[in-house]
Design a protein that fits this description.
By secondary structure, the chain is mainly β. It folds into 2 domains: about 1-160, Mannose-6-phosphate receptor binding domain (Cation-dependent Mannose-6-phosphate Receptor, Chain A, Distorted Sandwich); about 165-315, Cation-dependent Mannose-6-phosphate Receptor, Chain A (Distorted Sandwich). It has 2 helices and 28 strands. It has helices at about 1-5, 165-170, and strands at about 10, 10-15, 20, 30-35, 45, 50-55, 60-65, 70, 75-80, 85-90, 95-100, 105-110, 125-130, 140-150, 150-155, 175, 185, 195-200, 205-210, 215-220, 225, 230-235, 240-245, 255, 265-270, 280-290, 295-305, 305-315. The strands form 8 sheets. Strands 1-11-12-13-15-14 form a 6-stranded mixed sheet. Strands 24-25-26-28-27 form a 5-stranded mixed sheet, with no helix packed on it. A 4-stranded antiparallel sheet has the order 5-6-9-10, with no helix packed on it. β14 (about 140-150) and β15 form a beta hairpin. The longest helix has 5 residues, at about 1-5. The relative contact order is 0.11.
Amino acid sequence: MSAFLAALVAVTYAQNHCVYEYQSPNLKEPFVLNLTDISRWNMEFEAPGHFYYYSPCGNRIQCNQGHANFMGNVAQYHPGVNQCNHYLSVDHHDSPEYSFVGDAWHFEYEDGEKCDVTQEPRRVSLFYHCNDVNNHDLAMIETVDEPFPCHYFISIKSTLACVPENKYHANCQWKEQDSSGKYHYLDLEKLKGTVIRTDSMSKVGYEFYYSVCSNDLHCYQQGERESMAVIENRATGTCDHNLAVWEEGNAHPIIRESSDPPHWSFHYWNGDKCSDGRQGEFHVRWFCDQDVEDYKVIDDGQEGDCNFYLNISSKYACFSDEPRWVPAEQAFA
């Protein structure tokens, strides 16, 4: 989550407080999050022991506390008795930020009811993410968590959060900035559609498959979904996990320039969920190696429950200050 938040970039706040814009340096037209169609909704999520309510673009959730009546945009209720526990945040027409890592718009809401533990107002971090491959809903709350006392995280999948496909990214090519503001180019187009299989998991009865920048794999046991990365059970010949889906390059890489060696890191949150309901994660890291003609698997494994990684070296991942796919003066025009 810290890496996720660190990659957030600024968004321009439009006149209509339900319409937000982000101007990408790679596109002529800005990305737009338009919540007008759900601006009158009051959304509900049922969690063990609690109901959560959220009203986009306004404070329409009522919370009676004694003789006082508070209005907020997120509140927590007792199930069954229609009694408000706490109002969690207030919408002051806050603008979101956009993150290419995870492909999400991030709102930060504060000024909720005072917390008994921290003695500070409650707050809500709310994420709208595009998951259009597996989602046709305007908006639906997927998860509500309280990992820290009185700090709540809400994840919403929504077709409204999807940004236009970028023809360079869809071709497995990216232009990204490092911490100094300098641009670098990653060009994996020659590997697009290549299916990479690893051997390290075979000794425990599983096989790991990753199709570069494509959904050329299938996870029939998981709703017959097309997938970018899967884990298969060798004994049964079935797909055990759908790790990630290729969404036409919407997930951007982070340049890990301080690591040794520097590399490009992709992070996906659109595969299967864990058995406890948490969203699964998949990391793909590309390392430069001029001696590797196409690709070489360095290693793979798990960094936690339902959190998988794959490290690959390739000459195509070597840092370039100029785009390889079109002349520099035409790049991202």
